[in-house]
Amino acid sequence: MSGDVFDPEQLSRCISCGFCLPACPTYAMTGDEASSPRGRITLMRALQDGTLPPDDPTLAEQSSFCLGCRACEPVCPAGVQYGSLLEQWRVHQWRGRRRPPLARALTLVAGQRWLLRLLGLVRGAARGPAAAPPTGQLMLGCFERGLYPGVSRAARSLDPTLAVPAAQGCCGALHAHNGDLAGGERLARGLGEELPGTIVTTSGGCAAHLASVLGPQRVRELSTWLAGRPPGVELRVAGRRARVTLQDSCHLRNGLGVFAEPRALLRQVADYVELPSAATCCGAAGTYSLLRPKDSRRILDGKLDEIEAAGVDLVVAVNPGCLRQLRTGLRRRRSAVRAVHLAELLAEAATPDRP
Ligand code: SF4
Ligand code: SF4
The 4Fe-4S ferredoxin-type domain covers which part of the protein (predicted)? Predict the structure, then answer.
């Protein structure tokens, strides 16, 4: 009997109604109950009460196949906190040497503060104190400062009152979602001490994780931070107003309920087109695109078809993982559509003398 894998109260909440099934991308792919939120909760219960042994292959497969997108949460009438259950499941399932080597390597890298600092310096991420007493602290993210340093520079240009301390580690979301929940909470608390006051982040996934550990009052995702500010100039493409669409960040939308704010900002500077599947995962899902590339690409392909059919110039992301996923997929197709982060697009719209 595995007894203590899950918080019993959380696990008992599911009433097996099935309302979550239509929202689940992996269930849509397979039509298999085991790949649905309800089916996975049944598996969790079987693990908890010992009906299934811990090394059961279905447990291993379904804990990995799940995107962790939390699309099952907002539609659940019983308030099941599925994201939290999945984190607990992976702590058990991926303990010790069972954790996928790639996930272990990535969490190891993200936990190295000196390496993150060096990455930020080399790649030219935003830095420096705010001119006046800071209104908030801009978080640089672990992989964002290496892959997309222009995002933090754009965010800082949109709000120069933000301080950007160079000494800041990883928020721990990567760890929490990949079998190291304790490490993820420790890193979030450490970052909370390094960035006192309000933490402003350009990553929806980091915002949700930080809010779960430090409390929502300490954390603001960029679109909520900028909400209500005066619009930039109109963004134009080929002599006309740009047509843009948004890919939601799953954890920002399903975990924090933030989806109206980025859309409102985009409507101020461009013609906004809503994708039918904007709220559905793009397949990036943290490390998912690296650990399960075939499944990730299958999910992405349908999304890219939609983006191209929408006739937009730009698709906007509010999370670095989604940005990487969309950019990679669009480049692979040699698509004319460009993927940008919300901060980059707004900074571009705020620059009236651009060519
Ligand atoms: S987190 Fe996403 S993929 Fe996993 S069960 Fe919920 S809806 Fe399905
Ligand atoms: S909607 Fe909620 S209560 Fe209903 S089956 Fe899904 S997780 Fe369980």
Answer: 2-34, 55-80
